[in-house]
Amino acid sequence: MDAQEKFAYWLDTAQYDMETAKTMLLSGRWLYVAFMCQQAVEKLVKGLYLLYVDDDIPRVHAIRQIVILFEEKLPEPIIEKHYELFDKLSAFYIEGRYTDYKRKLSDSLNAREAQAIYDQTREVFAWPLTMKP
Question: Which end of the chain is more exposed for a tag (fewer CB within 10 A), N or C?
Answer without folding.
Answer: N
